[in-house]
Amino acid sequence: MTWLVTGGAGFIGAHVVHALHAAGEQIVVLDDLSTGVPERIAGVEDVPLVTGSVQATSLVAQLLRDYEISGVVHIAAKKQPGESVENPLLYYRENIGGLESLLRAMSEVGVDSLVFSSSASTYGNQDTDVLTEDAICRPESPYGETKLVAEWLIADVARVSGLRYVNLRYFNAAGAARPELADTGAFNLIPMVFESLTAGKAPRIFGDDYPTPDGTTIRDYIHVADIASAHVAAARHLASGADARHVLNVGTGRGSSTREIVEAILEVSGHTELTPEVHPRRAGDPAVSIASAERIARVLGWSAQHDMRAIVADAWEGWLFHHPEARRET
Question: Which end of the chain is more exposed for a tag (fewer CB within 10 A), N or C?
Answer without folding.
Answer: C
